[in-house]
Q: What sequence folds into this?
């Protein structure tokens, strides 16, 4: 049983795309997978999967429906637990929300091989608490300078909260090896500015890179997962390679 928080420093870097397609690839490999849309209030996993949820996490939190009723199997072989959109009450962490989130994660953990927490972007208290519920943290970043800057800020805050190891997926790379260069660049900045104030080094592991691919836009527009629509596309192969590295040894 593994809980992985998939997060990013800024929006628009493909975090939900990675979450959903990695889930599908893990499911194809025989894993029992749940994606929990933890971007509370600004959820979009349902849009990507072309789902129209009748029951969401909000209904579970308010006691209108059970957790079992809210977990939805999708045709690609994994299950989802969707959040609602436009819920302003989930824009900040409260003791009630903290308790509800923890309860849901504790309840689903024993039932799946992998639970992927698709968090919101940035370093809000809701995102930071959601990440704290996970064993592993996967940071999605692109080679763009703003993405690198925001990824660094996210890693710094999480490291100061006790995290010492992060996985990186570098999305929208333009040439082979760019992912390694991005990891090295971030690692050097972390070594210089973050680690000295901590009790041990912070390690960034490159889990994989996903090339810039026009097939991604087409799959998003068609509301189909790229790994299902065009499994041979370069980005689909990149995401599948990331999932393969997440499988138990």
A:
């Amino acid at each position: 049983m593994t809980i992985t928080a998939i997060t990013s420093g800024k929006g628009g870097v493909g975090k939900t795309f990675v979450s959903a397609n990695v889930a599908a690839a893990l499911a194809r490999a025989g894993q029992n997978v749940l994606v929990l849309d933890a971007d509370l209030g600004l959820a979009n996993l349902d849009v990507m999967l072309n789902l129209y949820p009748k029951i969401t996490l909000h209904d579970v939190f308010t006691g209108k429906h059970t957790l079992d009723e809210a977990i939805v199997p999708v045709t690609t072989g994994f299950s989802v637990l969707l959040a609602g959109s436009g819920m302003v009450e989930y824009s900040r962490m409260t003791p009630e929300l903290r308790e509800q989130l923890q309860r849901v994660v504790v309840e689903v953990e024993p039932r799946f091989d992998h639970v992927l927490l698709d968090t919101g972007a940035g370093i809000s208290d809701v995102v930071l608490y959601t990440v704290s519920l996970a064993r592993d943290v996967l940071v999605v970043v692109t080679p763009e300078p703003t993405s690198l800057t925001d990824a660094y800020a996210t890693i710094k805050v999480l490291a100061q909260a006790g995290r010492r190891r992060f996985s990186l997926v570098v999305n929208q790379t333009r040439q082979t090896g760019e992912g390694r260069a991005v990891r090295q660049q971030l690692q050097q900045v972390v070594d210089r500015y973050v680690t000295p104030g901590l009790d041990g080094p912070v390690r960034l592991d490159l889990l994989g890179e996903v090339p810039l691919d026009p097939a991604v836009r087409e799959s998003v527009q068609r509301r189909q997962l790229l790994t299902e629509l065009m499994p041979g596309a370069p980005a689909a192969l990149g995401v599948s390679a990331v999932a393969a590295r997440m499988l138990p040894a």
Summary: The beta strands are 2-8, 33-38, 71-73, 79-81, 114-121, 136-141, 165-173, 203-211.
